[in-house]
Design a protein that fits this description.
- The complex is a heterodimer of chains A (about 290) and B (about 525).
- Chain A is about 45% helix and about 20% strand.
- Chain A is of the alpha/beta class.
- Chain A contains 10 helices and 10 strands.
- By secondary structure, chain B is of the alpha/beta class.
- Chain B is built from 16 helices and 20 strands.
- In chain B, the strands form 5 sheets. In chain B, strands 14-15-16-13-12-17-18 form a 7-stranded mixed β-sheet, sandwiched between helices. A 6-stranded mixed β-sheet of chain B has the order 9-8-7-10-11-19, with helices on both faces.
- In chain B, strand 15, helix 12 and strand 16 form a beta-alpha-beta unit.
- Classes of the chains: A alpha/beta (about 290), B alpha/beta (about 525).
- At the A-B interface, strand 4, helix 9, strand 9, helix 10 and strand 10 of A face helix 8, helix 14, strand 18, strand 19 and helix 15 of B.
- Strand 10 of chain A pairs parallel with strand 18 of chain B.
């Protein structure tokens, strides 16, 4: 006799907790063959705002942690993901309808990207910053600092790899993020949130919304407490309008990307969400 | 006669040989503009200086076309070494004609000659000298090997540092291999037009730099032009916002240097003499027409009275008057409009309950003037503590603890600059870490250097000018082995590679929309 399975309820991830959408809405997530897979929470404007509040609250401690510490925390995500490899492979197979080999490759690459970005945490400032030889008796140095709260529309055509590729670089410098997961493949993002919740990532640093990016993204683009928006997965949306909305508060904007190289690992993804701060200090023997 | 009375010591205007009329500088020549010409006046006397051409849409088209030709045929093909040599030449010519430029600047802008002579113009030369050396070393700019230039840069600059802002814009653009169409501010076109003569003397290839004068609509036409690959703007946050909206969805790369409301934080252990000088320099330098001006003084409560008293004493010794007089500390407000804005906000400060004190100076009969002014008893919510006044007006607030100082300093949508005054190095560095601003001056203020990046957080804009970072604004990075996909990262609006610049169709908002649909299709097929 076969055992009756216990399906998981997928909820949002906001401020370290897993709430349902305050709107009470859900939408059906389907397998590749069209069969019902799960109900996912359909996040509302209020959920987006709650997520931004949670992210803002987390910026100070996350950006204030030492770079070494942030690197270890990000590395620990890779460790935990490795341990739950089988779960993610199965989830991706089911959701995307791809072969086990393809799903495994996606999980492996996701883990490796966490490792790659983890290693940048205590190095990117040395590459992106420098001392400035000014013409006067001043100590003068430029260093990159996190931009603050970054909203992300995750790549829409991938369950896990796209999500990780967009989120990891934004975290390296100490930003907190609000991510809208793939509308069609949201489940891995929520499962990853379970990994984050049990790793050492402080609550509020990563907040995950599932639902309709077309509905949620405009609220993120226009919100005054969001400092930057990554539209990497917004190619199918009216992203120009989102960019125009973002201009009202002069947000930093990254444009949509598509294809297998979308959000490919790059130092540029880290520095896109940093601000260069230059400090002058007088020098004197007296 | 008190010790404060000095005999007049005006700098001679004889060094200037101004024309009565100036055309637009397009394709290496001065040509008449097709818009309605306007007069540029001295804000200190309201006397006419010269008639200036105004560029209409057709002139903007010509200037952009000239810049595109120069980019395709000359500048993008020239070796970095030779580009650098032209920039070195320009730096030297600026040094040679420094006094003339300083006099023209003070005449047209109203800033004291001691500032234009000792700050603006030397920095202009330094800026060209610094970026000249970068032109053949772009591989080391941190953007990968062989970073690409962008193409034609549209640059719109403000009236507060007319020639210095020109240098901040043109020097890195040319070093990186771009060509330029620059629009100076309507009220301060003079030094840019003399600079155009310097370009002729330097034998810079025609069209590499084009300078078009006019009002806001000329600048808007330039920024909106389809033939432009890069927009660099320094000015108000309102206009910056409008530009960001206008270029959304296009391939134009943008840098914006916008407003500020800098906090200048004075702790009770600060070296008080230096701090007083620094506060004065922070807000009264250039009549306060400085985007990074220290317009919000945050004083630790226990030294508030002493600091304010000493500030008033010091301000009483400042000499306001003829910008060309070598003894002048405070020059003229640049325009009638700006003077009215300062008066309006200042009156609002009084209406909101702050106490106004102005230095007792004799205001000249003609011209636009505003005496150095301090507001005390200012509330955090007051408009004079929140809005950029862009004039010689200082708002004084207090704090008790470093945490309160940091919270108050960051309580603004701007994030351009900040100052910290304290004798304790560890505290300075800790506070500097917490301030959300692009430039922090510790025990100094309003220092500028071509090697030092400058630019803001939040609504003070994006991108940096100066230093290695300033080059990134005019280059597109080429990830190693990924030349084909270099459009994807960090440079959302990259230009095409140099060789195909001619053939590649300009991507307008409409074509951007189309390719967006394409990529969406591609994505779903995957």
């Amino acid at each position: 006799m076969t055992r009756l399975a216990v399906p998981k309820t997928y909820k949002l991830y906001i401020g370290g907790a897993f709430p349902r959408s305050e709107s009470g809405r859900t939408y059906e997530v389907l397998r590749a063959d069209g069969a019902f897979l799960a109900n996912a929470a359909k996040a509302s404007r209020k959920d987006a705002r709650d997520a931004i509040v949670a992210a803002r609250g987390a910026v100070a401690s996350w950006s204030g942690a030492t770079a070494y510490n942030r690197g270890q925390v990000l590395y620990r995500i890779a460790e935990l993901l490795e341990g739950r490899r089988a779960q993610f492979v199965a989830e991706i197979e089911e959701a995307e309808g791809v072969s086990r080999a393809a799903a495994s490759a996606q999980v492996d690459e996701s883990i490796d990207r966490w490792v790659w970005y983890a290693g940048w945490a205590d190095k990117f400032a040395q590459v992106a910053g420098n001392a400035n030889p000014v013409a006067g008796p001043y100590f003068n140095i430029s260093v990159p600092e996190p931009t603050g709260v970054v909203a992300i529309v995750a790549p829409q055509d991938s369950s896990l790899l796209g999500f990780v590729s967009a989120v990891a670089p934004a975290l390296v410098a100490g930003n907190a993020v609000v991510v809208v997961a793939s509308e069609r493949f949201p489940l891995s993002a929520i499962s990853l949130a379970e990994v984050l919740a049990t790793s050492d990532v402080p609550k509020g640093v990563v907040n995950v919304l599932t639902g309709s990016p077309a509905e949620i993204a405009p609220w993120l683009a226009s919100h005054a407490d969001v400092n930057a928006i990554d539209l990497v997965g917004a190619g199918a949306l009216d992203w120009i309008s989102l960019e125009i909305d973002a201009a009202d508060t002069l947000k930093r904007v990254l444009r949509p990307e598509s294809g297998p190289d979308a959000a490919a690992p790059a130092l540029g993804r880290i520095s896109a969400f940093t601000e260069t701060k230059t400090v002058w200090h007088t020098k004197s023997l007296r | 006669m008190s010790f404060l009375d000095y005999a007049p010591a005006p700098e001679s205007r004889a060094i200037l040989s101004l024309r009565d009329q100036y055309g637009l500088f397009i394709d290496g020549e001065f040509v008449d503009g097709r818009g309605t010409p306007f007069q540029t006046i001295s804000p200190a006397t309201e006397e006419r200086i010269a008639e200036i051409s105004s560029a209409n849409q057709a002139d903007v088209d010509d200037a952009v076309a000239a810049a595109r030709r120069a980019y395709d045929r000359t500048w993008s093909r020239m070796s970095g070494r030779d580009r650098g040599k032209y920039l070195f030449r320009i730096a030297r010519l600026v040094q040679e004609r420094a006094r003339e430029l300083a006099v023209a600047e003070s005449l047209d802008n109203g800033k004291p000659i001691k500032e234009s002579r000792d700050v603006d113009v030397p920095l202009v030369a330094a800026w060209f000298f610094y970026y000249a050396g970068w032109a053949d070393k772009l591989d080391h700019a941190g953007l990968g090997a062989n970073p690409g230039s962008l193409g034609v840069a549209a640059q719109v600059i403000p009236w507060n540092f007319p020639l210095l802002m020109l240098a901040w814009k043109i020097a890195p653009a040319l070093a990186a291999g771009n060509t330029v169409v620059l629009k100076p501010a309507e009220t301060t076109p003079l030094s840019a037009l003399i600079f155009a003569e310097i370009l002729q003397q330097a034998d810079l290839p025609a069209g590499v730099v084009n300078i078009i004068t006019g009002a806001g609509d000329t600048g808007a036409a330039l920024v909106a032009h389809d033939g432009v690959d890069k927009v660099a703007f320094t000015g108000s946050t309102a206009v910056g916002r409008a530009i960001a909206k206008q270029v959304a969805g296009t391939d134009k790369k943008v840098t914006l240097e916008l407003g500020g409301k800098a906090a200048n934080i004075v702790f009770d252990d600060a070296p008080i003499d230096q701090a007083i000088e620094g506060i004065v320099n922070g807000i009264f330098f250039n009549q306060g027409h400085v985007c990074c001006a220290g317009s919000r003084l945050l004083v630790q409560e226990n030294v508030h009275d002493e600091v304010v008293e000493r500030l008033k004493l010091r301000l009483s010794t400042l000499r306001l008057g003829d910008p060309l007089d070598k003894n002048t500390d405070i020059g003229a407000i640049n325009s009638k409009e700006q003077l009215e804005r300062i008066r309006e906000l200042s009156d609002i400060g009084v209406a909101e309950g702050a106490e106004r004190w102005s230095a007792p100076c004799v205001i000249p009969e003609n011209g636009f003037w505003y005496a150095p002014t301090i507001f005390t008893n200012v509330q955090t919510s007051s408009r004079i503590a929140r809005e950029e006044i862009f004039g010689p007006v200082l708002s004084v607030l207090t704090f008790r603890t470093p945490a309160e100082a940091i919270a108050k300093a960051n309580n603004t949508p701007y994030g351009l600059s900040a100052g910290i005054w304290s004798d304790k190095g560890s505290r300075i560095l800790a506070v500097a870490d917490e301030l959300r601003a692009g430039v922090i001056w510790a025990n100094t203020f309003n220092r500028f250097d071509p090697a030092s990046p400058f630019g803001g957080y939040k609504e003070s804009g994006y991108g940096r000018e100066g230093g290695r970072h300033g080059l990134a604004a005019y280059l597109s990075p080429t990830p190693i082995g990924q030349a084909a996909t270099r459009q994807s990262l960090a440079a959302p609006a990259t230009a095409k590679p140099i060789e195909t610049a001619d053939a590649a169709p300009k991507r307008t908002r409409r074509t951007a929309q189309r390719s967006r649909t394409d990529s969406a299709t591609k994505g779903s097929k995957r």
